[in-house]
Design a protein that fits this description.
207 residues, alpha/beta, TIM Barrel, 10 strands, binds the ligand O=C(O)c1ccccc1N[C@@H]1O[C@H](COP(=O)(O)O)[C@@H](O)[C@H]1O, aromatic amino acid biosynthesis, tryptophan biosynthesis, Aldolase_TIM, phosphoribosylanthranilate isomerase activity, isomerase
Length: 207
């Protein structure tokens, strides 16, 4: 079965329209003011308004204050939360929404331990470890560090591109893939042709 596809870091309604038309299952909105893809509430609503029904909306945070998550949940039609910082399992679960926990992978990181710790997560998102960054770097990591016995679904992320995603899907067989930099024309600006090629790559890798 083809993994689910999330395209993250959208800032423009036209990119949301393209992502949905091309076959994305979910889009991600970044609520992290240190990111070049950060959106405010008005921009987030405009992106969501451009989506057809049945495309999931994921809100990404990095070590947010509880009040900030509550504010976004009250103002924006979010389906899933994604946490990229040092949030505890209790904090992540406390919003009573499905959530994904990102783990920055490098040698020595035990994803089974992480999955056990965040067992109430809807999925574990494996991203590349880059010193000083929380994500969205376009860096890949060694996919052999991913065990095949994870007790919760794996979302593969980190430096995926139209050129490497088919190979990634073939090797890792993730439940979903997540991409930001690899389908961009510039920070926060998606490229429709790269999104098309990425989604085709996911399909090719699943055959
Ligand atoms: O996109 C960002 O700017 C970002 C900032 C802080 C944390 C996570 C961020 N993005 C997520 O990072 C991964 C990998 O992105 P990339 O494809 O390597 O650019 C992905 O989950 C993004 O959603």
């Amino acid at each position: 079965m083809r993994p689910r596809i999330k395209i993250c870091g959208l800032t423009r309604p036209e990119d949301a329209r393209d992502a949905a038309r091309l076959g994305a299952d979910a889009i991600g909105l970044v609520f992290y003011d240190k990111s070049p893809r950060n959106v405010d509430i008005a921009a987030a609503r405009a992106v969501i308004a451009a989506l057809p029904p049945f495309v999931s909306v994921v809100a990404l945070f990095v070590n947010p204050a509880r009040e900030r998550v509550d504010e976004i949940l009250a103002a924006v039609a979010v389906d899933i939360l994604q946490f990229h910082g040092e949030e505890t399992p209790e904090f992540c679960a406390s919003f009573h929404r499905p959530y994904l926990k990102a783990v920055r992978v490098k040698p020595g990181v035990d994803l089974v331990e992480w999955a056990d710790r965040y067992k109430n997560a809807r999925g574990l998102l494996a991203d590349a470890f880059v010193e000083g960054a929380h994500g969205g770097t376009g860096a890949t990591f060694d996919w052999r560090l991913i065990p095949d016995n994870l007790p919760i679904p794996l979302i593969l992320s980190g430096g995926l591109t139209p050129d490497n995603v088919a190979d990634a899907v073939r090797r890792v067989r993730p439940a979903a893939v997540d991409v930001s930099s690899g389908v961009e024309a510039g920070k926060g600006i998606k490229d429709a042709e790269r999104m098309r090629a990425f989604i085709q790559g996911v399909t090719d890798g699943s055959l």
